[in-house]
Write a structure and sequence with these properties.
15-stranded parallel β-sheet
Length: 860
């Protein structure tokens, strides 16, 4: 958190020094400039000397937070005076900052000492030397549950395949069983019979290459192969000589860096005799660096968890029947993590076999215990810029699936992401999230069609340990997530709290407490389904950067006071009754918020901007209700990258001017939704900018011939045609179309004949056909698309399913085993759909279907 505190303070000092709205004296400006220089120096020290800087972490965090509180209180008073024409200024920046500066100066002097001393001493390797002992004596048989399939798969990989040397990385989070699996493989009879020489070395985090070679030589000695005693040969050469010409298996356990692999790889010869190397690692980057074929470890399911627990607690007898129910619950609470189950089994083995004793253990399960050592190692190995991001994810409620788009906005608003040239804060935040996923600390729950993370979460045990770490680092006075009592927060942290995110219902009176959080940056009260308007005083929280709330029909003009606001998410009170005629009226002042980056309000009526400056920083805009895409509007949002427009509540008008979309030269993602099923006039034909990478059309019923325009887009990678996006029976594609398209979804359309060739979609990877009720077949030539990986079909027609499976069979006969086909007949998922209450969308879809029939007959 110290690094995050420094980054946030750097942004705050930049803000006060570079905005004319803050009136500071010459002396105060010099003082803040000096402070900013110290902050940047300390942040660089964390980059270059992370281990040494960690000794100052608590002091840095405290002093940086104190200095930022002082500056932001001063800024708050300045803005208050501006809007309310007062002269009240109780905070004197120079005097208040002086004490905080004393501590920061002291810390800087200490940092200067170790940066000067260590820069020369570190040389080429700043990792401390740690003796790595051979793991041969540490291997234990143990009990393997849920690994049989993994075991056989890896054993087959080691024994079969190419005669060239191959690397098999086993990747997964700490405690999931990577080493256990590798041990079982290492001692498997088929492996011991196949490989002439085997060796096991634990690499660990603070590795030394020389220690790896020494441990390998020790392993060779243990199996009767003597060292070469020539004193003039280095250890790595000795290892290479012993392995040369022999069929070997090397296990490199617990590898943490790509450098470690580079250090040893060149000394493992490839003699074409089927030699193999197994790597275990927590990091996907390390695994994929050494090989493109990864073995990803999975969590145990509930049955496997209970099976393992029983075998560990009762190795020589059955579990007593009176303990089964509570035992199953204990296994479930262990979260499918093998190490957690083993530790819990140890606790159960030490207590009496009574239901009371087991219930006492059950209450403790989930508190992590010894697992904290493992997960703490993963945490301390994180770069400093990722630590706050990770603790923030772990602060969300248990089992909560976090939308990645929301998370990266929150990180950016909190000041966790450093502004760097060339990329937006959100782009850096996406990279941060992927990094946490690669380290097996954050779990991906769902990915988008373009491969980016859509939803994520953390394992319950990881979350619990991180919650403890967050308490130790005392971040509660800065961030409150899911806290039910705003009044308690107001009494405790009113002068320092930066974030409030609610996940449960709060009363209107409790909302009144929000007004006291003067330094609040993030306020999110959407997920609590609150139907109460925000108190007017909330719009005096001048430091707000992220605001998400449910609201009445009109947003007050006072929202323009939030001059620092980057993200505004507005959800109407009736959002669950989405087809009721209701409009959220945005004020004209929305166009006067220069820092606004994300404006998401699907049911809003966007006012005519009139004469004002463009929102140059706006990257995302999602609106509805009669959005008219005039040339003036496009000039107001020149840099928008993501645009969502929803039309409903009346017949589509010809003067919505969608042809002006072509002037949005930076637009990458576009979603056009027509909710009410009206037939679009034939002369309505949007023209899209060439920058477009993802396009979703929903309910528009454009003629299929319009696909020629879309097919000419050079950068389009994802195309989703949903709910009658196009009308007509035949879609005939042409050469030189869709040059970059990788994902195509055709969802609920009346297409009957698809005339196409594989060359028309040269880069297609995934084809999804959902409820295309008239489509009975697709051209077999689609199977010849060289990049195609998946065809996913949900269909009424048995003939379509047969056609797609036949394409797969043809490809297998041609030696193409990469193409996967997933088919679900309508009768299979109809039962699931039948349990869902019929809603307005279903009615609208039926109306649209009938209208399409009328249109087709009229055209014919």
């Amino acid at each position: 958190m110290a690094y995050a505190a420094l980054s946030s303070l750097a942004q705050t000092t930049h803000q006060i020094l570079n905005h004319d709205q803050y009136l500071i004296s010459h002396d105060e400006k010099q003082q803040v400039t000096l402070l900013r220089g110290k902050v940047i120096f300390l942040r660089e020290a964390f980059h270059k000397f992370p281990k040494q800087a960690s000794s100052l972490e608590a002091r840095i965090r405290g002093s940086a937070n104190q200095a930022e509180d002082i500056i932001e209180h001063f800024m708050y008073d300045q803005i208050w005076n501006h809007y309310y024409s007062t002269t009240n200024n109780p905070h004197h920046l120079h005097n208040d900052l002086e004490k905080a500066m004393e501590e920061i100066n002291s810390i800087s002097r200490e940092a200067e000492d170790f940066t000067t001393e260590d820069s020369a001493a570190l040389g080429d390797d700043d990792s401390p030397t740690v003796r790595i002992s051979s793991s041969m004596q540490q291997l234990s048989g143990g009990i393997t549950v849920g690994l049989d399939e993994d075991l056989l798969k890896i054993v087959d990989s080691l024994n079969g395949g190419s005669s060239n040397r191959q690397i098999i990385p086993i990747v997964g989070m700490g405690g999931i069983g990577k080493t256990t699996l590798a041990q079982k493989v290492y001692h498997h009879p088929k492996i011991t019979e196949t490989f002439e020489i085997r060796a096991w070395v634990t690499v660990s985090q603070d590795y030394k290459a020389q220690n790896i070679y020494s441990d390998l030589l020790a392993c060779f000695e243990e199996v009767g192969i003597e060292r070469f005693e020539q004193s003039n040969e280095c250890l790595e050469v000795k290892v290479h000589k012993i392995l040369k010409g022999r069929k070997y298996l090397i296990v490199l356990d617990d590898m943490w860096s790509q450098n470690a692999w580079d250090d040893v790889n060149i000394y493992f010869p490839d003699d074409g005799n089927g030699s193999r190397i197994v790597i275990t690692t927590r990091l996907v980057d390390v695994a994929s660096y050494s090989s493109s074929h990864l073995h990803q470890m999975r969590f145990m399911d509930q049955h496997q968890s209970w099976d393992l627990l029983k075998k560990k607690v009762f190795p020589s007898k059955d579990c007593p029947s009176h303990l089964e129910e509570i035992g199953v619950e204990i296994a479930r609470r262990s979260g499918g993590l093998p190490l957690a189950i083993v530790l819990v089994a140890g606790m159960l083995s030490a207590v009496s076999e009574t239901e009371f004793s087991w219930k006492q253990v059950a209450e403790k399960v989930g508190s992590a215990g010894e697992l904290e050592k493992i997960i703490s190692l993963s945490y301390t190995n994180l770069p400093h810029h990722l630590r706050s991001c990770f603790l923030y994810v772990a602060a969300f409620p248990e089992d909560y699936e976090i939308r990645a788009s929301k998370l990266i906005k929150l990180w950016s608003s909190e000041g966790f992401v450093e502004p760097r040239a060339g990329r937006s804060l959100e782009e850096w935040a996406i990279e941060y999230l992927e990094d946490l996923v690669k380290r097996s600390l954050v779990l991906v729950k769902e990915r988008k069609s373009d491969g980016k993370i859509k939803k994520c979460s953390v394992h319950d045990l990881v979350r619990e340990i991180c919650r403890r770490r967050a308490e130790e680092e005392n971040i509660q006075h800065r961030v409150s997530i899911a806290h039910p009592d705003l009044f308690l927060l107001a009494r405790t942290y009113c002068s320092t709290l930066r974030s409030v995110i609610c996940f449960q219902l709060i009363s209107a009176s409790s909302l009144d407490a929000l007004r006291v959080f003067k330094l609040l940056r993030v306020l999110d009260v959407v997920d609590d389904c609150n139907e109460h308007p925000l108190p007017a005083q909330v719009f005096d929280l001048f430091h707000l950067r992220y605001l998400a709330f449910a609201c009445p029909n009109e947003i007050p003009a006072a929202i323009s006071r939030l001059r620092n606001l980057r993200t505004l998410i507005i959800c109407p009170r009736i959002r669950l009754r989405r087809y009721i005629e209701d409009v959220v009226y945005l004020p004209l002042e929305i166009w006067t918020m220069p820092l606004l980056t994300h404006l998401v309000s699907y049911y809003s009526l966007l006012p005519d901007p009139g004469v004002t400056s463009p929102l140059n920083r706006l990257l995302e805009l999602s609106v509805g209700r009669r959005f008219v895409c005039t040339k003036e509007i496009t000039e107001m949002i020149p840099n928008v990258r993501k645009l969502g427009i929803t039309y409903f509540g009346g017949k589509f008008r010809e003067n919505y001017q969608l042809y002006n979309l072509v002037f949005l030269h930076h637009l990458e993602k576009l979603k056009l939704v027509m909710e009410d099923g009206y037939v679009i006039p034939r002369n309505v034909r949007p023209v899209f900018p060439e920058s477009l990478r993802k396009l979703t059309l929903n309910g528009w019923r454009f003629p299929w011939k319009y696909m020629e325009t879309i097919g000419s887009l050079p950068n389009l990678q994802v195309l989703k045609l949903r709910n009658g996006a196009c009308r007509g029976r035949t879609w005939e594609t042409k050469e030189d179309q869709f040059p970059s398209l990788e994902f195509l979804e055709i969802n609920k359309c009346n297409l009957k004949n698809w005339v196409t060739q594989g060359s028309h979609f040269p880069r297609l990877k995934c084809l999804v056909l959902f409820d295309c009720s008239r489509l009975s077949k697709i051209p077999s030539d689609i199977g010849h698309i060289p990049t195609l990986e998946l065809i996913d079909v949900y269909s009424v027609h048995k003939s379509l399913v047969k056609c797609v499976k036949r394409i797969q069979e043809e490809q297998r006969e041609c030696g193409n085993d990469a193409l996967q086909v997933h088919c679900t007949r309508y009768r299979d998922w109809k039962n699931l759909m039948g349990r869902v209450t019929v809603t307005a969308p279903a009615t609208i879809a039926l109306i649209a279907f009938i209208q399409d029939l009328i249109v087709e007959r009229a055209e014919n």
